[in-house]
Amino acid sequence: MPVQKVNDSSDLDAKVPAHLQRTAITGLTVTSDPSHRCVKARVVHKGPVISCAQKDGIEMLRAEIREEDLPQSTTEHTSINVIFFGTLAKDFSQSVRQGDVVLLADFTIKKSPSFLRDKRHPCQLEMDGNDACVYVCPSAAPSQGPSCSEAKYTYVPLNNLKHKTVVNVYGVVTFFKQPFPSKGSDYCSTLKITDQSDVKVSCSIFSKKLEDHPVIFRVGDIIRLHRFKTEIFNDSMTLLNTYGWSAVTFDGIIDSPVDPRTSSKSFHFGESDKNTVQELRQWAASQSLISNDPTVSLSSVHPGMYFDLTCQLLAKAVMDSRCILLKVWDGTKCEHPLLNVAVASDALEGESTVAKDRMNLTANVLVYDNHMEAAQDLKPGTFLRFYNLRSLLQRAPDQQPDQAEHLSFHLHGGTTYGRGLRSLPAGSPELQSLKSVLENHVDLDEYDEVNDGTLLEIWYTPPEAVDGEADTAHSYTVRTCEHNTQQLTLARVKRSTPPLSCHVRARVKKYHPQQLYQCLKLFCSKCKTMKDVPDDGAVAKVFRESARENQPCDEQWAATSSASSREAGRTISMHISKDMVGQSTHMQLIFVEGTTLDEICVLSRDYKNLVPVRSENGRMALMDLTAPFLFSGDKRYYGCKRCSLNTFENHVFTGVETYDGQAVAEALGVQLMRYGLLIQFELDDGTDTLEALLWENAEKFFHVSAVDASGSQDLQDKIQTIIDTIQPPQSSLEERPWLDLCLSVYTVKDNNINKVCYQITDSEIREE
DNA sequence: GCTTAGGTTTAG
């Protein structure tokens, strides 16, 4: 039943239903039977509508009413607190002003929890929206309070606080701790605020509900406190929240929108508040408290610092009962190598950080003890801020003494210096610059995709027993990774869930291809096509077909010389750009037409860079891309048939000192296919066997460049020699050397079926 | 229902 209005105080008496009996406030006791009673009194205080923490956030409002028709002698317990709940609280807030006379019926009588403090009345009245009824007679004299329905608040400057009063204040936060569990029943926020008076006041806020605590992001935020009581502690004025309190915060950035941050559903906020906030922002900007901001980006972190870090969560993992790992970034590159922390892949929640790890962008933050509670709730993608984060140089357990130490980050237990963390809403104005930095890194995801063969996540698990010999015997390979992961048996690796990275020690049981020249592959980084290097028979056929019935082409830009071949009717032509005439043959890019494969091979002994071409309606065109598009000394460069445009746009290479496959490919509209080495090893460590690819890491593994190997028998022999060492012909498995390998376990989609693959990464042949 | 904290560094 809503609040009902009457025009005159005497009408209130008329409204009293016949069955109700008017009762004096002074006479109310806890044992009074409330039924059939009503009270009539003047509203002397009306509080704001607040949400009641103890009653599941139900709206409530507290008012104080005073009995007026009293004998002179009566002075005790003349006023009483009334609590309105639910819709009645809101209705009362809107319809009743301080100074109005009200008639209340169908209340319940409870013991007053604040009687010892306010000495008002041993009881309080509680009015529930469903049953209770309120009649109000608006006061004729508006002088009792402001004309608006909301009470107007006055704010006391911090240098004018008087002991034992309840006040409203505004201030700039100069220190704060995130809410932490007190030794009592509540969470406690402690903060220090200041204002234009330059007086600093400490403040403690107790509340069971975390969400009721002030939402402070950084020093410099503006805070408004309502109904805080003043107390002297250690000769200093302090503020403590008291019944009906509220806290509202704003960011301290000048000219940013004045957006109140609060969990309170109903709070007063008007034009004068806006002004106060803006004045405090202006004043704070001139104070040193802002310039002492401890916020630091990853790019300027140094070892041993305590600092605040604003960042985005990429992934997280619980390490043990007292530690949780948060992998974060802020888009800036750290000057010091960053420590990667070992994690069980099935315990890691969030995206892969491989690409960012490689670029030294991922900070691994170990969050301890009391901070785990806040860290556990964070979802990957969330923006967050660490307060009083510690950076330390650390040596990874398997790290060589001569390698640079890595930077680790610890959010130690405890709350001193405001140590803690909290999430930041994505729309927060102070996140805008961070977000634009992160957006500049979108290409990283593509990078990740290209390198999906090394979806490296670090694996941590107690090692299984590996047989003694394997543990200590000399290894023919050495791992070059810097992460710290335990060595696993192959059996354990096969039981694991990808993606993960691990260390294994195994022998080569078999390898494929047995004909090693077949391990040389061509790979298109654009469409990911991989193919064998065409054999000479196939290439020779393309040359023969192009040369047949070929009429030399005629291009304005080219100087051409032609000669008859041994075969009747076939002309061999060589074209060079006219502005290159007279240059050394090593500096010239020569377009060759009408030759056989054998002939261009002979020519390439004397001419460094040859592009085989044919004529198409008199114009120069590239040959079918089964053939190389460039012969450069011993090397042949191939283009991707799918991705090349063959635009032949820029045949002019003026001033180019050296040609490489990439530069020529770009000029001709060809998508270069890169050389790679691909070998599959069947590994065996006695517990199990598995097929591991050597692909992305193959050049490092053999210390051989694939493109160089393509034109060098010596380098191909070198690869053969290495293979013959790790798997000597006719040897038994036991005779073969052990290999220490870093292994990446990942899945690929093959015909829509997820297939687990193993790839050897970060491992090299030991060069004695 | 009352108390809690009251800034000042973990030690992984």
TrEMBL record:
Gene Ontology annotations of biological process type: regulation of telomere maintenance via telomerase; telomere capping
Superkingdom of the source species: Eukaryota
Name of a matching Pfam family: POT1PC
Molecular function via GO: G-rich strand telomeric DNA binding; telomerase inhibitor activity
KW Nucleus (keyword) present: yes
SMART domains with a match to the protein in the record: Telo_bind
CDD domains per the UniProt record, alphabetical: hPOT1_OB1_like, Pot1C
Keywords: Chromosome, DNA-binding, Nucleus, Telomere
SUPFAM superfamilies in alphabetical order: Nucleic acid-binding proteins
Protein location: Chromosome, Telomere; Nucleus
Record-annotated Telomeric single stranded DNA binding POT1/Cdc13 domain positions: 155-285
GO terms for cellular component: nuclear telomere cap complex; nucleoplasm
Family to which this protein belongs: Belongs to the telombin family.
Protein name: Protection of telomeres protein 1
Species of origin: Phoxinus phoxinus (Eurasian minnow)
Lineage: Eukaryota, Metazoa, Chordata, Craniata, Vertebrata
